[in-house]
Amino acid sequence: MSPRQSQISVPLIRAWLNDCESNHHNTCSRSVLEERQGLPVNLLLIDVEFQAIVEAKSSMRYVALSYVWGQIDCFQTTKSTLESLQSRHGLLRQSSRLPAVIKDALAFVAAMGERYLWVDTLCIVQDDADLKHRDIHQMDVIYSHAILTIVVLSGKDANTNIPGIRPGSRTEWKSKAFGNHQCIPSPLSLQRALEVAPLEQRAWTMQERMLSPRCVYFTNQQVYFQC
Question: Any idea where the Heterokaryon incompatibility domain is (predicted)?
């Protein structure tokens, strides 16, 4: 991927995912992870195609999202909104209320050719004490059973776009002239990108990253894939 591109290369990320799923059976496969994290559990997922919340199991193929919620009034699933969100295009009808990070995650999952997405604000019924308790206590299974976790390292809250999903949402790297030479800055290592990321201040981050079989990390300049 050229460092000058302002948008990500979805086919490249898809190729990374396919390579891992095809060749890393003994280390990254779902069967290995499910042995470690137990049997599938019940959960809610977003059906990206129908733009609706559906009842599901963690054995289904889905992508998870890890991001900074931040100090904003974020649209949530509640007992009063769940039924409408479970109808076809229920999320589409609430599009204006969804934060940028969730809109971009939905677009990315669709572009990757995947069907389902798990996001805490929408897939946990926030005012149902029993369901919320269930989901918080099975968070390890939710992330370990996801085929891929989107990790948004940039942005202080959910109203920040995922860099590179939409045109102009990522900083282009510009070369600088030194005599007869054109130099392009070297990207940060993943470790350094993690150290300076706002996401690393979030309490659940370590669990989400460490338990996910694969992560695709987004920064303002770069995308990293780790499995």
Answer: 62-208
